[in-house]
Amino acid sequence: MKIWLLGMHGVVATTAMVGAKALEKSIVDSNGLVSELPEFDGIEKIAPPEFDFSGHEIRWINEDAYDAALKHWNLNKHYDYEILKGVKDDLKEIIPKKGTALNCGPGVESLGELSAFEKEGYTLREIVDILRDDISEFVKNDGVVINVASTEPVVNFSKDYHDTLEGFETMLDDNITDHANASMLYAYAALKEGIPYGNFTPSVGSSIPALKELAIKNRVPHAGNDGKTGETLVKTTIAPMFLYRNMTVEGWMSYNILGDDDGKVLAHAENKESKVISKDSVLEKTYGYSPYSICEIRMFPSLVDNKIAFDFVHFRGFLGSKMKFYFIWDGIDAILAAPLILDIARFLYTAKKRGEYGVIREMGFFFKSPMDTDIVNTHRQFEILKEWYKNLGRPKGLPKKGILTLGT
Amino acid sequence: MKIWLLGMHGVVATTAMVGAKALEKSIVDSNGLVSELPEFDGIEKIAPPEFDFSGHEIRWINEDAYDAALKHWNLNKHYDYEILKGVKDDLKEIIPKKGTALNCGPGVESLGELSAFEKEGYTLREIVDILRDDISEFVKNDGVVINVASTEPVVNFSKDYHDTLEGFETMLDDNITDHANASMLYAYAALKEGIPYGNFTPSVGSSIPALKELAIKNRVPHAGNDGKTGETLVKTTIAPMFLYRNMTVEGWMSYNILGDDDGKVLAHAENKESKVISKDSVLEKTYGYSPYSICEIRMFPSLVDNKIAFDFVHFRGFLGSKMKFYFIWDGIDAILAAPLILDIARFLYTAKKRGEYGVIREMGFFFKSPMDTDIVNTHRQFEILKEWYKNLGRPKGLPKKGILTLGT
Amino acid sequence: MKIWLLGMHGVVATTAMVGAKALEKSIVDSNGLVSELPEFDGIEKIAPPEFDFSGHEIRWINEDAYDAALKHWNLNKHYDYEILKGVKDDLKEIIPKKGTALNCGPGVESLGELSAFEKEGYTLREIVDILRDDISEFVKNDGVVINVASTEPVVNFSKDYHDTLEGFETMLDDNITDHANASMLYAYAALKEGIPYGNFTPSVGSSIPALKELAIKNRVPHAGNDGKTGETLVKTTIAPMFLYRNMTVEGWMSYNILGDDDGKVLAHAENKESKVISKDSVLEKTYGYSPYSICEIRMFPSLVDNKIAFDFVHFRGFLGSKMKFYFIWDGIDAILAAPLILDIARFLYTAKKRGEYGVIREMGFFFKSPMDTDIVNTHRQFEILKEWYKNLGRPKGLPKKGILTLGT
Amino acid sequence: MKIWLLGMHGVVATTAMVGAKALEKSIVDSNGLVSELPEFDGIEKIAPPEFDFSGHEIRWINEDAYDAALKHWNLNKHYDYEILKGVKDDLKEIIPKKGTALNCGPGVESLGELSAFEKEGYTLREIVDILRDDISEFVKNDGVVINVASTEPVVNFSKDYHDTLEGFETMLDDNITDHANASMLYAYAALKEGIPYGNFTPSVGSSIPALKELAIKNRVPHAGNDGKTGETLVKTTIAPMFLYRNMTVEGWMSYNILGDDDGKVLAHAENKESKVISKDSVLEKTYGYSPYSICEIRMFPSLVDNKIAFDFVHFRGFLGSKMKFYFIWDGIDAILAAPLILDIARFLYTAKKRGEYGVIREMGFFFKSPMDTDIVNTHRQFEILKEWYKNLGRPKGLPKKGILTLGT
Fold it and tell me: Looking at the 3D structure of chain D, how many domains does it have?
């Protein structure tokens, strides 16, 4: 299958490409790939673990994926150099297309000089047409689009332009740039072309009503938002424990430090806001009440792509006595995120082949802020994913095999 | 309902009694009580949260429960003194019966001079008869027996005496003391009287075939072993996360320190062994393979009943890259354990009223080493408990409401 | 000796009073008191550990010290209730005088309705006259003044009014309230009366040139600023280690959470700024270079006076390899701070008796931002304190016994 | 200068050789080298940072230092591969001589088949003669010997053979192998040849009276024992803080995990014992009393040479209130140890050139169990090292510049 990556030269995208190619060549095993678990046996028949990549970029657009991967590797050394060497030839052939960074905020602007259509005077409609052509020419109805570009600022929501597909297309035609941003345009382009779209970032992507409408209309599956890779993964795994034991969480501190481009972008308040909202809402969704919560992300340059999270939970047990729980997560962001890109691609592709469309809520397992569901408990999400997979493609008349239902 | 506590003067038992009485008087709320969650609505009609207590002891047997509770409070100050004051009159009336500490190992012997029948020359059969009389006279078919006595050494299993009820009774009649220990005798006494038995400790209790046979024969429910209160609770909550993401656990270190009587008893290698086996097996049960594992408990006197666990997980993700996860659990053992005593009592009592008997595997949620099941994932255990409760008492002919099944 | 406390009803002040009285009555031992170390033998002859207390307040000014101590105890339970009971009579007699909260910022205003002279239309000169009368009447040349009031915003420095004593007094006379704040007025009052002044807070206190001039002129010793009690104590103890081993600190994260009044005041950006500057400068003073640094304080209500610090040090060793060090400090702020109040009082009092005056730089051991010295290494500070004490009162002609010198 | 390494193919020795050569070629900077601090200016004139290496080994004795370094690098990747490539030619030329592993215990035996003289029937005297020849031929009075071999079991002390040089030589002549072990024989060989000896391990080395006598007689400086690189470095830096503040340490837990050869050797109780004694005594030396202490080292294979220490300090402050301090040290053993090999070599060499001999107590800064002194406080040790260096070679008649004295 084909994977079109938005932000193709980023550390997550390049690590995913390195990994996919290394897997094909048996340089590495399938460790880290959810879709390779025995629970998902059979997926290899629909979506074999063989991928062709391309994508849009706004940086280093004349360089190939190997050049970009090497830059990230030199900073991070996040995997064995032998792996990179082993896939060099494959990555040398992958070259991105120029994209858009419309309204991506000061964080993205700070990454250096950007190559983006809006900087050259193109209108929204012109940009979208180019994006559609690029994507469809490569994917040819045999793949998906995944957004791994930097986090955008919280979108300035407009009832007129975001609520209906008609409004959205008016915005494009009238070139109303204030209410458009890059992730929307990409999502529109993908869905318009009938290609499944996965949003691995907290950017708005396909989550506005207008684009959900488009997905239904064109019968395309999409999923998001914001890959659940580190602290939030741990948090949503452990948080239910306090609930099950009827203990009250008095406060939860989550403090994250990281370096690299992601750290640079998130060091800008506007760009960070989307991320913090995405991370912070999981406690209320878990408990039904809102414990006192600190949820922070800060730049720490020397860590590069190594992300450390410090969590502290103050909880009250029997007789009102307070106790403490601390955790430290010392992870490597790209290593945690990259395999999920491949997983999301495979599941979305399988969904399409099996006739599913609209928001695939059952893929919430992969996301911090899963669309159209309040289930954030990692364990329930995994159960739901398994059952959904098991029932995929069953004739609609038959009863589903599972019993777990979505909803709050 | 009545709760007969084995080890009535221990810190867990006294805290449970304080809490139960304080709850009745609305001095405290139901925080920490699983059975008070909305998922278990209706249990108050079968097993209302009102409890009468008594029990067996081998220490301070002329003292009342208030005296014992005060001793523990003075060392630990683990809850507000006002709570203890508020239930003083209730606890003054609770006085234990003399029990047995047969083959309880050097750890228990180190607690001080013990008052136990075997020290006065009673035979096994004589001891068992007294225990049965004490329990049935108090409980009168309206309650349960819960074991919260100190951890015994690993039992010296005997095919002759432990495998069948007949063999077990021969052991009693022939006074074969080498193969008997206190927790077995208590479990036998309870089950023989038709009273549900819960084992909150890693001691053998009712888990030998002979006593399982007795429970089936007498149609009594029983459950155990070893209350899941601290590190193991966190471990079995978080461990599945690595599995869901197909990441390999290279090693897991669990290091526990605590003081108090529990620490004193576990400082003795023989007594500690049962506990470590109970804690250590959860990784293999979770993963199917055995990661390198360190699982240790050590005495740390100044902590008294404050138990701190240090865990470190070394895991391998995509492309073979290793990452680290640490947690520190700073809990108060009795605060964590005490409410579960009341929960287990209520669920066992409800099981009996609803006609369930034998090992109640669906209560595995409460235990480190749940009998007759390999499911240790806290989340699955909670789902199973909920479904079991929902279906309790449904006529056998009807299909069960849930789909989750037990087994590996 | 007498101790006049600015912020007499705060948790630190009341805990110091409880401790001092409990020590006199042998209810507690001298654990935590630096001045009771064998290194300071003989101090009991000059400044015996017997203290009378009074002070200024802006809250609860009609209540006595016991009432205030009990309020704090009920929230924090930071020591045994028996201790508080044992000194109740002593504290019932201690009642504060009304003080000033001039320009203390929104954090202090948020504590509730304040009783302060400036709110009743008094001029600076009138306020200062009252403060002087209150202090001198109580202290009678036999004690010290210690500032334990809440942290003020960073002062708006004025060359005209802060640089010389003459300018300062012009400010008072002309009632230039914009450039005055409470801690300066108190410091002026104390020094003007010839009474030693210790500043346990990061507020400006006596650290402006004008007041240093006054201290020299009136031959009064003073010391400050900002008691070194928790994270900064650990940080300045451990930070030199990396220097000694010639390892480079790439970054240091310090993240503090606490509740209580202190947390409330510091939740206001203006008030927090003083504190963060005070804490943050220690790395540069230690290393000569400025590692990347995060230094944050955040409110966490359920902790009350329990303060937790999370530190992470990323350091580079031989061959450029990076390594990690983490610490968690789980302390009780008032317990750490209170004994130092008594220590600072005794050392300042001893200094005065031995003829020392001006800034006592050798007392830097007690402070986060010691005045007039860049030595922040806790070990060197302790050596310096010991030597200074040993040489106190030696005739000026004789060579000093020690060799450690101050300065960068 | 020349450095003769005992255990030349180990991870510490090879990392030291790589680093020294990389430093000469300016591939790396002097980060991590104590002797390159400004405090030790001038040392480059006596002991320039240029080193020739050779040594004894019992493993892989036909391989060169590059082969050994590469093996360790492949397991650990503890520094940039470019560094290793840059010094390949230099290391290819370094080939060890066969040595001895006499009475090195089961831990060392477990490393694989050993090449050692005692296995071929040589007598003690014969072995010692060979060792002396090997060392003196290479070092030629222009270097030092450093022991970086694996930890030996605690020595079986013999008054007859260890107390005097005469007794020791009788042991050699009479071939009394029960009371001899490898580290003694090497230390004897070095000192007998007049070559300074540094013991970076907890093995006995030169610390028996007989060898101290030899060092005095031959006017050779020696120093040890057991390089202070990780947890003990942090511990002896932070422990004095509690003392300075007159707070009582109720208990201190130190739990270390590591993999690699060091972990393998220390997994054997006999070999671990020396290490634990060395680490554990620092608390008593710091406080004068012995807090409750846990001090453990455990194998954790996946960490390889990455060593993680978990420490917990329970301390009591003012009014008897208890507080908690935790630290996690995530270091790379060889990176921490290797530069100290070069430092110790340079200081010992300088000492010799300046006419110092016997135990150089002032080098205690580098060791966990410094010989002939109870000073373990890292800060005092650094001050002492600086002053000693400053006064090195001053005519004996003149007063020393410093004042810090050794002794308890």
Answer: 2
